[in-house]
Amino acid sequence: MLLLLALASHLSAATLAGVSLPDAVAVGGADLTLNGIGLREKYYLDIYVAGLYVPSRTPDATSIIESDVPKRIVLQFVYPEIPRERLIASFDEDFGKMKELAALQGSVDQLKSWMPAKVVAGDQLTYDYVPGKGMSMLYNGQTLGTIPGSAFMKVICTIYLGPNPPTAALKKGLLGGGPG
Questions:
Q1: What is the per-residue pLDDT across 23-34, written as a single tens digit (0 to 9) for each?
Q2: What is the pLDDT of residues 49-108, one digit of tens each?
Q3: Can you tell me the distance from the alpha carbon of 47 to that of 44, in angstroms, rounded to the nearest whole number?
Q4: Cα–Cα distance, 70 to 64 (Å, whole number)
Q5: pLDDT band at 5 (very low <50, low <70, confident <90, very high)
Q6: Given CB 3.0 to 4.6 Å as the disulfide criterion, which of 4, 73, 99, 101 pairs with 127?
Q7: pLDDT at 180
Q8: Do 43 and 67 form a contact (C-beta atoms < 8 A)?
Q9: Residues 101 and 159 sit within 8 Å (Cβ to Cβ)
C-alpha cells in the first residue's frame, strides 16, 4: 500500500489551462519540487503556463531569487504559434523593467540568439540553474546553451517574481498562491 501511495505521489501533476506539469523534477542531480504554476495572459489570450521548481516550497519571492540553489522555470506554450520576433519583443519588454541589466547585456543577447524560429502550442522553454555551472536554456528538452554564473538566473527569477512581473496573477501562481 505504501508503495502505491509513493508511486501515485511521484506521478501526480499540477494542471492549468490544459497543461500538466509534474510535481517534482531533477536538475543537476538535485530533486526539485513544484513551487507553483501560473498562466501568462496577454490581451485576454492564454500565452503559456509557467512552473517554478525549487528545492523546497516557499512563498518568499526574495528567497527564491537570491538563493544559490538549483531552480527551474518552465514555460509551456498554449498559444497556437508565436514567431521568434514576438518572443524576442516580449523578452525585451520584460528585460526593459530591469535596472541592473546593463552589466548583463551580453547574456541577454546570447539568450535571444537561442530563441527558436517559432514556438507552437505544446512547446517548452526551460531555464535550469545549477550552482557553480550557470543557467541553461532548453527548448523542448534540448539544451541550447548555458550562461555561466548565478547573476542571469537571478534576473530571470526577478522578471517573474520581482516587483514588475509580466502579470501579478502569474507571480502569485508561481509563489504557490493558486493558479495565476
A1: 999 999 999 999
A2: 999 999 999 999 999 999 999 999 999 999 999 999 999 999 888 888 877 677 888 999
A3: 9
A4: 10
A5: very low
A6: 73
A7: 55
A8: no
A9: no
Per the domain annotation, does 5 fall within a domain?
no
Q: What is the CATH number of the domain that holds 77?
A: 3.50.70.10
Distances (CA, A) of 179 to 8, 35, 95, 111: 22, 11, 24, 28
> Is residue 6 in a domain?
no
| 147-156 contacts, C-beta under 8 A, 24 or more apart | 147/107, 147/110, 147/111, 150/68, 151/103, 151/104, 151/107, 152/104, 152/107, 152/111, 153/71, 153/127, 153/129, 154/65, 154/66, 155/95, 155/98, 155/100, 155/101, 155/104, 155/107, 156/73, 156/127
In a domain, 3, yes or no: no
Task: Give the domain extent around 47.
Answer: 13-174
73 touches 157 (CB < 8 A) = yes
Dihedral angle over CA of 9, 67, 144, 169, nearest 10: 70
How far is it, in rounded angstroms, from Cα 40 to Cα 50?
Answer: 7
Rounded CA separation 17/123 (Å): 14
| Mean per-residue pLDDT over the chain, rounded | 91
* CA angle, residues 95, 16, 162, in degrees to nearest 5: 25
Instruction: Report how many domains make up the chain.
Output: 1
Minimal CA–CA distance to 51: which of 117, 126, 119, 114? Answer: 126
Amino acid 179: pLDDT = 62
